[in-house]
Amino acid sequence: MTVAIALFTQDLRLRDNPVLHAAAAGGREVVPLFVLDTDLAATGFATPNRQAFLVDCLRDLDASLRAIGGHLVLRHGRCAEQTARLAEQLGAESVHVAAGVTAFAGRREAQLRERLGERLTIHQQSLTVAAPGAVTPAGKDHYAVFTPYFRAWQRLTARTVRPAPKALRTPTGLTGEPIPTGRPDSPALPPGGESQARRRWRAWSPDRYEELHDDLAADGTSRLSPYLHFGCLSPTELLQLALRRGGPGAEAFVRQLAWRDFHHQVLAARPSAARRNYRDRGDHWWHSEPEAQAWREGRTGYPIVDAGLRQLAAEGWMHNRARLLTASFLTKTLYQDWRIGARHFLRLLVDGDVANNQLNWQWVAGTGTDTRPNRVLNPLVQADRFDPQGSYVRRWVPELAGIQGRAVHRPWLLPTHPAGYPTPLIDPDHLSHRLRAGRGLLRPTPPDPIR
Ligand SMILES: Cc1cc2nc3c(=O)[nH]c(=O)nc-3n(C[C@H](O)[C@H](O)[C@H](O)COP(=O)(O)OP(=O)(O)OC[C@H]3O[C@@H](n4cnc5c(N)ncnc54)[C@H](O)[C@@H]3O)c2cc1C
Q1: Is 432 in the same domain as 390?
Q2: Would 321 be classed as within a structural domain?
Q3: Tell me, what CATH number does 208's domain have?
Q4: Does residue 450 have a pLDDT over 70?
Q5: How many angstroms is it from 413 CA to the middle of ligand 1?
Q6: How many domains does the chain have?
Q7: Do 265 and 318 share a domain, yes or no?
């Protein structure tokens, strides 16, 4: 009996998994392998929140594999080394893995190729709906602007959704290491795994998505991002489920899936954008560690900003509108380097993703793909528009929980300043005056530039 290895990475699911599907084709014995990669651990990317979520995903994957006759084989070490060793030991004729978009995934694929040669198959369209590079503008290797990308993306024909294997045979006697435990930093982290992802999709409806997606208090977005990041759900299947549902809500949701693909194709073409400005605009960021730390702790004195950062600390997740306005506050109001914020998000976000995080941060900072790089989000206007009753702030900032209505957004106007809540880092009059005067960045000439 021939053996194939399905090397799981960011595709921790049975349904619509091209890697598992290809490995299981032809009735071969399959080794569902996951390597706890010491090279990844060395990068600092495997933070406690994502590690705890990953542990849930692996347990769920193992349980689902056992239900069809197989089991997960876990190894600890360098991914290519461990995979090649197992392939030799079992005389595996093929190894399947999903294509990634980061520089790290590129190196891993090169190392796998070096050791496995022709036995390795790298599957596109596993992490994204469209493979990076599937659509490109004439003469370029990727789209740098979302709208034309979205038009081209909509014209693509999505691949067919693959069923989960009904039965699987893993070579007898093959054991792995036990699945480790994980302890998250955030007390209200969502549970991981394919079963949870499907439960979430069934419990949520995109029907009111268009109307509610920017309403901070309504919390009406899908919250599927961690499941998409770890591949507990296939974006292709999700697209098809949404298209089948139809209507303006589902269409708006599909557009967000396209944003995800967009950022992945930018990063695949420019892996350096994870660290370097995608478009350098000569920013000389202002550096103040006390201000950066106040921002991280959700103690800027701007309630809407602080609410977002505290949601992040508590849940390991933040509403998209809050991500936008907290990021804009750091980069455009405090005029601090986007990498400071991106690093903090990546430490805590359970959906923390190099493509989506770094490129969204660059979009907000004006160094990325936004066609209006001078856009500044006024935190007070954002608060009035997207949290008109102040409920989101009261939910996350206990010092302000007793203040009724939208007055909660301007505690400095109250007769007594709420006990324990900080005064604003930036004088609100100064902020409003500068924004009304149409000045983009509040601090264009920092005294202590970092270059
Ligand atoms: C500064 C900043 C940092 C971000 N960091 C991340 C990150 O690390 N990981 C991450 O997955 N998303 C990130 N996003 C994008 C977005 O905020 C989240 O994907 C979204 O809030 C997740 O919630 P949801 O699943 O309820 O989204 P929904 O609104 O239900 O959208 C459905 C899916 O579409 C995708 N999506 C939605 N918005 C975007 C977007 N702007 N860019 C790319 N994909 C999107 C996500 O996969 C999401 O799960 C960031 C946005 C900003 C502004």
Answers
A1: yes
A2: yes
A3: 1.25.40.80
A4: no
A5: 34
A6: 3
A7: no
The pLDDT tens digits for 206-256 are 999 999 999 999 999 999 999 999 999 999 999 999 999 999 999 999 999
Q: Are residues 351 and 427 in the same domain?
A: yes
Same domain? For 61 and 107 the reply is yes
Task: Point out the ligand 1 atom lying closest to the alpha carbon of residue 361.
Answer: 1
Q: Is 411 among the domain residues?
A: yes
Q: 327 is written with which tokens?
A: 């990021």
User: Which one of 204, 237, 320 would you pick to mutate in the ligand 1 pocket, going by the greatest count of ligand atoms within 8 A of its CB?
Assistant: 320
Residue 237 domain-assigned?
yes
- Alpha-carbon distance of 264 to 133, in angstroms, equals 10
Pocket of ligand 1 (CB under 6 A): 213, 221-225, 228-229, 253, 256-257, 259-260, 263, 320, 323-324, 327, 345, 349, 351-353, 356-357, 360-361, 364
Residues 355 and 300 in one domain: yes
Domain CATH code at residue 9 = 3.40.50.620
Asked whether residue 431 carries a pLDDT value surpassing 50, the answer given is yes
**Ligand 1 atom having least distance to the Cα of 351:** 9
Do 153 and 167 form a contact (C-beta atoms < 8 A)? no
Residue 326 alpha carbon to ligand 1 centre in Å = 14
What atom in ligand 1 is closest to the CA of residue 262? 43
Please state the pTM of the whole predicted model.
0.96
Let me know the angle formed at the C-alpha of 136 by 135 and 140, rounded to the nearest 5 degrees. 165
Q: How confident is the model at residue 442 (pLDDT cuts 50, 70, 90)?
A: low
DSSP 3-state assignment of 397? Answer: coil
Mutate to test the pocket of ligand 1, among 50, 356, 358 (most ligand atoms within 8 A of CB): 356
Distance CA 133, CA 266 (A): 9
Identify the CATH number of the domain in which residue 387 sits: 1.10.579.10
- Do 17 and 96 form a contact (C-beta atoms < 8 A)? no
Tell whether 99 is covered by a domain.
Answer: yes
What confidence tens digit (pLDDT) does each residue in 384-403 have? 999 999 999 999 999 999 99
Q: How far apart, in whole angstroms, are the C-alpha atoms of residue 139 and residue 152?
A: 15
**How many Å lie between the centroid of ligand 1 and the Cα of residue 7?**
26
Atom 38 of ligand 1 has which residue's CA nearest to it?
256
User: Cα 447 to chain center, whole Å?
Assistant: 34
Residue 448 pLDDT exceeds 50: no
How far is residue 339's CA from residue 354's CA, in Å, rounded to a whole number? 12
Provide the pairing of β-strand 285-286 with 29-37: unpaired
Instruction: Provide the residue range defining the domain that includes 29.
Output: 3-124
135 shares a domain with 247 = yes
256, 259, 295, 321: residue to mutate for ligand 1 pocket, most atoms within 8 A of CB:
256
Instruction: Write the pLDDT tens digit of every residue in 324-380.
Output: 999 999 999 999 999 999 999 999 999 999 999 999 999 999 999 999 888 899 999
Domain check: are 28 and 145 in the same one? no
CA distance linking residue 267 with residue 355, whole number of Å: 6
Judgement on whether residues 98 and 143 belong to the same structural domain of the protein: no
